[in-house]
Design brief:
- This protein has 87 residues and is mainly alpha-helical.
- It has 2 helices and no strands.
- α1 packs antiparallel against α2.
Length: 87
């Protein structure tokens, strides 16, 4: 049980760091329409930023699912052990 708790803590820690990274990326995200050729560098930076945010979507979902599933499994094990007298 303690190994599962350590694994859950590591997964959740990585998830939190990834969510913080993603939120800093979205703070720099602009919703602008670039009509002029002089603003092409800004449009390129925005496209790169959007690509970084999109790359974090799958890992965030996988880590959140794994963390939640592991938490549920540990809860079920805890209840099962309590029901059977701690054996």
């Amino acid at each position: 049980m303690s190994i599962m708790l350590i694994v859950w803590g590591i997964l959740t820690g990585i998830l939190v760091v990834l969510l913080i990274y993603r939120s800093t990326l979205t703070m720099h995200e602009d919703e602008q329409l670039y009509l002029d050729g002089t603003e092409a560098h800004m449009q390129k930076e925005q496209a790169e930023n959007t690509a970084r945010v999109d790359r974090t979507t799958l890992p965030v979902r996988l880590l959140a699912a794994a963390s939640g599933l592991l938490l549920v499994v540990m809860g079920v094990m805890w209840v099962y052990r309590g029901w059977n007298g701690g054996q």
